[in-house]
Amino acid sequence: MWQLGEPWWQLVVRGSVVYLVLFVLFRLSGKRQAGQMTPFDLLLLLIISNAVQNAMIGQDSSLLGGLLVALVLLGWSHLLGWLSNRSRRLERLLEGRPEVLIHNGKIFDDILQRNQISQEDLLAALRRQGVFSVADVAFAVLETNGGISVKKRSDG
Description:
56% of the residues lie in helices and 12% in strands. By secondary structure, it is α+β, with helices and mostly antiparallel strands. α1 (8-28) runs antiparallel to α2 (39-57), α1 (8-28) crosses α3 and α3 (63-86) crosses α4. It is a multi-pass membrane protein. It is found in: Cell membrane.
């Protein structure tokens, strides 16, 4: 139970490599909040987690090995969060920049496509914020966390 099946440093390296590679892949795959995940997104996430499990722990099935890898993953998450809070440039690199999806009622389809957001998803996000017509939108912004902020046009 407490005897490692792999050297501790190998578990640290494996966990680090998997974390960083997945971080880059998910960062490149677009912005989407957990609440906006489709069943396909959830399925993909579950399959990926199962697929990388052995890459992280190798032949180790000990409790200590699993806890060590979990600590490594949490450590990377904390470190990247701390670094992004310290540096605006690194924050933009790690988290991206907000992107304008709609400006004065005009939808930017290229930005929707690049972030894998359908027009239906965009319209649903507008409705959740009480906007039922794209023409009523001064601007809508895709935030770095995947949320969509909307500013209505003023009536005056």
